[in-house]
Write a structure and sequence with these properties.
Helix content is 33%, strand content 21%.
Length: 355
């Protein structure tokens, strides 16, 4: 039911998203649509065993949007498809995101703060939606995501917040397991950081990724993962109440197989800029974190990112949305596009208000 409603309401954006990813797959990866479908269908057994609900929701989205199920499946496996194809071509996929967590001991008002800039290809801004799911079986949740996909950055009514960063390792190509966006959706069912950690370690994952998770109790953990199971997870806890991450591995065991940072050193500078802001001595409030996410240091590849005007649009990178959550207060702020040029809007589950 909720999948059909999502698909129906976001149908125009889903159509544009599908058309755009056809171009991305063909232009960047040399991947024809039929080949993308065949690759995505190889993940069906893993998805069904891990989360039958995810498959049900994808079928509902397809029905509501009046598109084939395979099309929605491809969208929810887009990272696995793009990264595998990029590796075969010897390319580095575009990186995305600078994230942070500020625990109650470090925040200005004793609240748990979490957020990030989500950086991706420019067309994603035109197909980005906020999905608010009200339900009785699990905590209601809201997620900012490309239309047709199950989840991305989000928060749920249990007080759990989720941020994420792309990681690329040498072990990512053509791995089987649970796709990245299916895992993100499953984490929004969790009611605590501990439960999120157990969920991440419960199955084989198909792709490397970073998951920064916090809850309103004040706990926060960063989980770096490579493709694999429980032993391929590296957890770190806050330093002086603070956590931050970008798009490179910090785990000493994983750093040697990092396939991204060598070609994209801006991940290092973005992370350093975020840490510099977090430790500047200024009081860390929602407003202060929004200011840090507007940083143009090391432009155009700063924390607030803008497309390189010389790059092909399908190779460019920009901040699609900026998200800050106060998990203690149960409030989320987000922007439509780079936060330097768009006002943050305030959102609570089940309601909508502009600030």
């Amino acid at each position: 039911m909720r999948g059909r409603q999502y698909g129906r309401l976001a149908s125009p954006q889903i159509g544009r998203c599908l058309a755009s990813y056809r171009d991305v797959f063909e232009h960047r990866a040399g991947l024809e649509w039929d080949a993308a479908v065949a690759h995505a269908r190889a993940f069906l057994d893993d998805i069904e065993q891990f989360s039958p609900v995810a498959l049900e929701e994808m079928r509902g989205i397809a029905e509501g949007a009046r598109v084939p199920f395979d099309a929605i499946l491809v969208l929810n496996c887009r990272s696995e498809l793009m990264f595998a194809a990029a590796k075969r071509k010897g390319e580095t996929p575009p990186g995305e995101c600078t994230s942070f967590a500020v625990t109650p001991e470090a925040s200005a008002n004793g609240h748990m703060l979490l957020g990030q800039n989500w950086d991706w290809v420019p067309f994603a801004r035109d197909v980005c939606v906020l999905v608010d799911v009200q339900r009785d079986d699990k905590p209601p949740y809201a997620t900012v995501v490309e239309a047709g996909m199950l989840a991305k950055v989000g928060v749920n009514a249990a007080g759990l917040g989720l941020c994420t960063n792309t990681l690329v390792s040498e072990r990512d190509a053509d791995r089987r397991g649970v796709p990245y966006h299916v895992m993100l959706r499953a984490l929004l069912d969790c009611e605590s950081v501990d439960e999120a950690g157990r969920t991440l370690g419960s199955v084989q994952r198909a792709l490397s990724a970073n998951y920064l998770v916090a809850d309103r109790s004040g706990e926060a953990v960063n989980f770096e993962t490579i493709a694999g199971g429980k032993s391929e997870i590296y957890a770190t806890w806050p330093q002086a109440g603070l956590l931050a991450h970008a798009n490179h591995f910090l785990c000493p065991a994983f750093a040697p197989i990092d396939a991204y940072v060598g070609n994209s050193p801006h991940s290092l500078t973005r992370l350093a800029d975020m840490w510099r802001g977090l430790t500047s001595g200024e009081r860390l409030s929602v407003g202060r974190m929004q200011d840090l996410l507007r940083s143009h240091a090391h432009a155009p590849n700063g924390v607030c990112s803008h497309p390189d005007p010389t790059a092909h649009p399908l190779y460019a990178r920009t901040t699609v949305a900026s998200i800050v959550t106060d998990l203690t207060a149960g409030e989320l702020w987000f922007t439509d596009g780079p936060p330097c040029a768009a006002a943050y809007e305030s959102y609570r589950l089940g309601t909508y208000a502009t600030s």
